[in-house]
Design brief:
Structural class: mainly alpha
Order of helices and strands: HHHHHHHHHHHHHHHHHHHHH
CATH topology of the largest domain: Leucine-rich Repeat Variant
CATH architecture of the largest domain: Alpha Horseshoe
Largest sheet: none
Strand content: under 5%
Number of helices: 21
Length: 372
């Protein structure tokens, strides 16, 4: 008689994860059973079970989580900690706080063997939305030496003391990045006032870290360009940010100018069309220095599709005092606008490149057809 084939631990873990999605209650029952027999199951299966336990706020699931948090295998402990972050059991927040405090003491004492690092604790806190967790994390941000890893998990909090603290931390050497990112995520007038103050000429000249900080602000803003409102519905002040960025596209710090140009391109605010045209015109006349941001400014005009930009883009596409990249993006912007007035310039660009740019030739043909 043939012995039935036993599923591997990896397959059982996969099946348990699938069951968690279909029937969480049944998955919890199996997950609790895994930890009822210590060392009787593989680490792969124990990790999968630990990951499922946070979905059910029962005492049995919570006790199984306690066991998983003390497992001999790090992957099991990490899965249990993140699962504890998702748990809505009444004692889950208190246990998570105790674990984090114990881990910090252990790390300070150079005892890393069972301590959870910043990243593991951060992942657990990202799931919490309860008052006890909020009070604990806000207190960590308000400390004399703020805990940067506690900032992002509080993006949902409206605690006034937290908002004031974030504004005060925007230039902090360790927590500054997290504070700036959190303010960008929140949006609204509070974020604008705090962050725009870092991009003024005086602020940029006052610190050795000004380029790093300004670039970080601009990067955060254009990474969040799809967030025109915050979770609470506040406007993101895109027009004001675009105006600030436009003032920086000719900054002498190359990374600041480049970041500002990308932000102008991402925000694509119609109100800026005349100002962008004026900036490009000043470069073409030699009144302002050329910059890496020219390519982004040309792209912004192409994305906006405003025909008022066609003469300026035509001049930029054939200018000799700008980079090849700026000329290329100007031609692409003209293709995007699709105005027949740009055809002579586009044909000249095509001829200069010996017709090698197939996308340009295709765009010229499409403009010729639609303009007839």
């Amino acid at each position: 008689m043939t012995k039935p084939k036993t599923a591997s631990a990896a397959q059982r873990a996969k099946d348990l994860r699938a069951l968690s999605e279909r029937d969480p209650s049944a998955a919890i029952t199996l997950a609790v059973a895994v930890f009822a027999e210590p060392r009787a199951r593989s680490a792969v299966l124990r990790a999968a079970a630990a990951g499922a336990l946070g979905a059910m706020p029962t005492d049995a699931a919570f006790e199984a989580l306690r066991k998983a948090l003390d497992d001999e295998v790090e992957e099991v402990r990490d899965a249990a900690l993140e699962s504890l972050g998702r748990s809505t059991h009444p004692e889950s927040a208190s246990l998570l706080i105790a674990i984090c405090e114990a881990s910090e003491r252990a790390i300070r004492g150079q005892q890393h063997s069972r301590a959870f690092g910043d990243y593991q604790r951060f992942r657990a806190w990202m799931h919490r939305r309860d008052a006890e967790s909020e009070r604990y994390l806000v207190a960590r941000v308000l400390r004399d030496e703020p805990d940067a890893s506690a900032i992002q998990p509080l993006n949902w909090s409206s605690d006034p003391a937290l908002i004031d603290r974030l504004r005060a931390l925007v230039s902090h050497p360790r927590a500054g990045d997290a504070a700036r990112s959190a303010l960008v995520w929140r949006g609204g007038a509070v974020a604008f006032d705090a962050l725009a103050s870092l991009l003024t000429p005086a602020a940029l000249a006052a610190s050795e870290r000004s380029e790093e900080i300004a670039s970080s602000v601009l990067l955060s803003l254009w990474c969040h360009d799809d967030r025109h409102t915050t979770e609470g519905g506040e406007p993101r002040n895109d027009a004001r940010w675009a105006e600030v960025a436009l003032e920086l596209v000719h900054d002498e710090r190359d990374e600041v100018a480049h970041g500002a140009g990308i932000l102008v391109k991402q925000l694509r605010h119609p109100r800026l069309v005349p100002s962008i045209i004026a900036r490009i015109t000043s470069v073409l006349r030699g009144e302002m220095k050329s910059t890496r941001a020219l390519a982004e400014l040309a792209s912004a005009l192409g994305a906006l599709g405003d025909r008022r930009a066609v003469p300026t883009l035509c001049a930029l596409a054939t200018a000799e005092n700008v980079s090849e990249s700026a000329r290329w993006y100007a031609a692409r912007a003209l293709c995007a606008i699709g105005d027949r007035a740009a055809l002579p310039t586009l044909r000249a660009v095509d001829a200069a490149g010996n017709g090698a740019d197939k996308a340009l030739r295709k765009a010229i043909a499409e403009i010729e057809q639609t303009s007839e």
